[in-house]
Structures are given as structure tokens and as C-alpha cells.
Amino acid sequence: MTTVSATETLVLNEESIPSYLAERADAIGVFPPNAILTAKPITGGNVNFAFRVSNTVENGSNSPDVRTAVFVKQAPEYVAIFGPGAYPLTSERMQMEIDVYKEWMQVDGVSQYLPQIYLFDPVHMATVMQFLDGYELLDHLLIKKEHKEGFFNKAATQLGDFMGKTHGATHSSKMAPDRVAYLVEHFENRPMRDIQLEFVFTKCFKEATDEQRAGLTVDERFMKEVALIKAQYNGEVGTENLVLSHGDLHPGSVMANPDTEEVKVIDPEFTVYGPPGLDVGSLLSGFVLAAIHHAYSNDTDEVASICDAVQTVWDSYTTAIHEYGVSPELVKEIESQAVGFTTIEVCRTALEFAGGRLWLQFDDATVKAKAKRAALELVSKCMIDRHEGGIQLLIKEMKSLADYVG
Fold first, then answer.
1. Which terminal Cβ of the chain has fewer Cβ within 10 Å, N or C?
2. Where are the alpha helices (DSSP H) in 60-202?
3. Do 194 and 85 fall into the same domain?
């Protein structure tokens, strides 16, 4: 990876990107001298601007010959989806993303799960990286019916391994105090953490209507558990059980290739040195929501496949993290955390506070209402009893989803 600088900032767009990349072609090391670059925006993200930049060479026909492509991402001084002035945010989040990639690349066996980064520009807060041709977002794949047999389990094995290795290698119980202190400070990532504290852990519980909460038991015990999870995320409790985490590792932050069955982890700008259950739970929330989607689409075989994948994630994770000597007691705590963070994500999605995610979207209003209610009932059961039941409780409730259909 090359880091470059410039004298003034530039807002990247379809018109400016070709010349911007051409000026840095040597540093990027991907495009030939005669490349004709075309940039197209990628929609669907919330925080940054993103583009696919294709390198084409005229071949004398009406259709240019597409030779290669890169992914370009730039962090503006605000949340991109809201526009300038609506939600100011420091563009330094891009630096955090690069820093955590550098840390992960030092962990044995992890580079295979990461995209190649060609260039980082700290002045423009822009990154040029590998465009993952043939890959799709895992959250899209989880709700599709067409995939290779065993695909979910293979993806789950890799993702559990990725989390277990990155968590084990950076676990606070296995490093010198000065190293832990550095990670706590450097990856505190307060601006991005505050966004999550508001939009993930607070907003849905304050603003949801009684109608939206149908199926959810919101009592003192429940809110005490929410407060505990929020405090763990904010670094207020559980400081003996911390890791360098992705920070937002839901399936929309994973690219998977259905043909090669490989996965790549992307978008770690919400990275924090925080509770390990955060990553595990964020990932598993997508599997839970996918199981609900398939249950209410009458695809019970897919529900069983996804339940198996949840077990595989956890088995692969524990195998990897135990190799770093993290104690069984701390891993048990991670399990409880993971179910807690899972339920938070499932809850805010069912309450319709998770943006435009694909989960729980049905044309039939009655089916949608039933699916949302089932999700919230699962949340109620798992949030309170997660400390004893752990992952097995979560899987049990997922497997019972078929009982709701009808």
C-alpha cells in the first residue's frame, strides 16, 4: 500500500476521479499508460462516497475492452447519506480504517480475508483498493435461495476464523499494558463511536412507537441489559476483555464470492478497541434476520442451513481465539456479549431504525408484521437469558421460527 499527499483537498466525483487517478498511476500500480478511466458511483452506502473506476482500452469496436477496475472511497466531513451540514463528521475516519487494516495485516492468516489496498491519500481522505469482481454483499446472499450447498458454512468458517484471530492477537489479556493503553487510545474513535451510541443503542428505544414495539417486552430488566451492552460498547465496563474490533461487522460489511466461496471484510471505519462480542454479534444479527426472512418466505430448509452457519461461526471463532490462550472464562463472557449485540441489531432492525437494509422487507403487510413480531419476541427471550443460554439459546430460538409461520 502506498500513502501519498497533496497540497489541497479535492471532492472526488465522476468527473474528477479519472484525472485524480491518472496523476497517481505510478503509486497505484494497476493501470497501464494508455488506460481510459471511467468512474461510476456505487450507491447503498451511508457514510462515504464510493466509486467503481474501470480501466478501458479502445479496441476499435463499439464496445471498449474493460481490462480492470478499482474501488475508490472518500470520506467527506459529514455523513454522506445526509449531505453537507446535516450531520458533520470528521473525515479522519478514513485514517482509522487504514490503521486497523495495517494492524490486521500483521496477524498470521488474516490477509486472505482483506481486500488489497493500492493507495491511501491522507489529504483527500481517499483510498484506492481492489475492486472485488465476482463478489456480492453477504447480506444480499443470505436472503437468496440460489447458492452452492454448504456455502453459508464455508463463509461462516472463514468469518469465525477472521474474528478469532484478530481478537486473539489483540486481546487485552494477552498483551503488555503499554500496548493495550496505545490501542485503547488510538482506536477510541470517538466520533464514530458516538454515532453508534445514538443510532444503534439509543434512538430506537427512545423513539419507537407502541405499534412498532409489538412483540417486544420493554421492562426494567430488559432496559438494564440494554444499558449494560451500551456501557460495554462505550468502554465503561468489561475493560479486562477488549480487542481491536471491526466495530460494524454486519453482513453488509462482508463481500463473498459465491463461486470461489471466499470472503473479504470491508469498511472497518467504525473500528474500536472494545468488547469482542461486538463483532460476533453484529455478524450473527444478519444470520438471525436472514433466518426470519426465510421462515416467513416458507423456506424452512434455508432456516436450518443458516442455523448451522451460526453454530459454525461460533465454533470457528472459539477454535481460533483459544489458540491465542484467551481463557475459557473470558470466552464465555464473549459468548454472552455476542448474543447481546446480536439482539440489539435485530431489535433496531425490526423497529425500523436500521436504514434501508433488506431484512424483514415483505410486500405483504400482514407477513411483514408477523416477521417483525417474531424478531422482537426472539429479542425479548434472548436478551434476558443470554448469560446462561448463550449461543445455544439463540440457535434454539432461530430454529423455532418455523412455528410462527402460518
1. C
2. 93-105, 138-141, 151-169, 177-186, 190-199
3. no
Higher pLDDT, 86 or 299: 299
Closest CA to 159 of 346, 311, 274, 329: 311
Question: What one-character DSSP code corresponds to residue 197?
Answer: H
The residue among 114, 130, 146 that closes a domain is 130
Q: pLDDT tens digits for 167-179?
A: 999 999 999 999 9
User: Each residue of 311-350: b (16+ CB within 10 Å) or e?
Assistant: bbbbebbbebbeebebeeebbebbbbbbbbbbbbbbbbbb
What is the DSSP pairing of strand 136-137 with strand 126-130?
Answer: unpaired
* Inter-helix orientation angle 190-199/220-233, to 10°: 170
Task: Give the number of domains in the chain.
Answer: 2
CA atoms of 62 and 376, how far apart (whole Å)? 54
> What values do phi and psi take at 128, rounded to 5?
-115, 125
Does one domain contain both 229 and 125?
no
Domain coverage including residue 196: 136-404
Contact in structure between 113 and 162 (CB atoms under 8 Å): yes
Q: Is 92 found in the same domain as 8?
A: yes
User: Nine-digit cell at 52?
Assistant: 467503481
Distance CA(83)–CA(86), nearest Å, equals 6
Cα–chain center distance at 76: 20
Q: Report pLDDT digits (tens) over 330-381.
A: 999 999 999 999 999 999 999 999 876 768 889 999 999 999 999 999 999 9
